């Protein structure tokens, strides 16, 4: 998957951008508040329909405009597509692919993996951040996962409502319990399968971009105990059912569900030790970056093509050696990367397309 042409109009400070990126590494250089991140954000919004900065559409418009438009010509496995997203101040929002109405479940929409400075805290941050990390990529990989996640959220809400209203002794609650368990485990199985793929890929990626030999492992951490060495649907359902029974009094007292994928987590280990506790801040950051790269390769393994890789100001957080190793990896990669930076040191301009962006305009190509 590669963007051939991008057009952005009245999106934040980008009044009019026409951009033809290279198929490899693209670097957007400029001082702070010049529009580098806004350009990344426009690609993300076109792909997902939403901002990664949690901004409402009305806040994405240029202050002098009454709407914004983002268009792109792109290829997926040598097939050509055109996508557009148009928003107007009156709330009208229209997404098209090849001039036909589209949704975020469309099989031919743009897909992205995003890295922002907030992701540097993926390893030591809250469990909800790691669950969001899994959910975001899995929703791009599988419409079945979207269906299962939406179902689970709805059933969890109903179950919590019954707990809140102290309606836990009737037939309705027993039925909800079984539906809850079934949907929870479907979600857990999909997550575990993906984490196993991610774990295999990440080990090699981490060593390459860090120039070391550390052993990295990723494990899916359930919010309930299992008594078997085997992991399958029946074993997990039985384990969750037992956990719910064990938590019965506590759930009634606290009026909420105390086990399930909404409370699961990811554990990262470096040389056998829990990374969030024992790894240095620099090692945790390096692991976060390798995880995002591993996401790219896992996506390719599952879907047969790469998503777009968007990296916002990652170089400033790395030492010179790590910056150089990451840039070399991106320059030789088969996927398309968009990287923002305040400068382009350590970047071989023969193997990257470097543009200067200033006051919301692409000023010139630096190579």
Quick structural summary:
Helices cover 42% and strands 24% of the residues.
Tell me about this structure.
The protein is an alpha/beta fold and 367 residues long. It folds into 2 domains: 2-111 and 307-365, Rossmann fold, CATH 3.40.50.300; 127-277, RecF/RecN/SMC, N-terminal domain (Glutathione S-transferase Yfyf (Class Pi), Chain A, domain 2). The chain has 10 helices and 15 strands. It has helices at residues 36-48, 57-60, 127-141, 143-164, 171-210, 233-246, 248-254, 275-278, 281-303, 320-332, and strands at 2-11, 14-19, 25-29, 67-76, 79-88, 93-97, 100-101, 112-115, 216-221, 265-270, 273-274, 308-312, 337-341, 353-358, 361-365. The strands form 3 sheets. A 6-stranded antiparallel β-sheet has the order 2-1-4-5-6-7. A 6-stranded mixed β-sheet has the order 8-12-13-3-14-15, with helices on both faces. A hairpin with a 2-residue loop joins strand 4 and strand 5. Helix 4 packs across helix 5 (171-210), helix 5 packs across helix 6 (233-246) and helix 5 crosses helix 9. It is globular.
Radius of gyration: 22 Å
Strand residue percentage: 15-25%
Tell me how many strands there are.
Answer: 15
Give the overall average pLDDT: 92
* N-to-C series of helices and strands: EEEHHEEEEEHHHEHHEEHHEHEEE
Instruction: Give the tally of structural domains.
Output: 2
Largest sheet: 6 strands, antiparallel
Distinct helical segment count: 10
What is the CATH top level name of the largest domain?
Alpha Beta
Q: Can you tell me the CATH superfamily of the largest domain? A: P-loop containing nucleotide triphosphate hydrolases
Might you state the CATH topology name of the largest domain?
Rossmann fold
- The CATH architecture of the largest domain: 3-Layer(aba) Sandwich
Cα end-to-end separation: 24 Å
Low-pLDDT stretches are none
Helical residue percent band: 40-55%
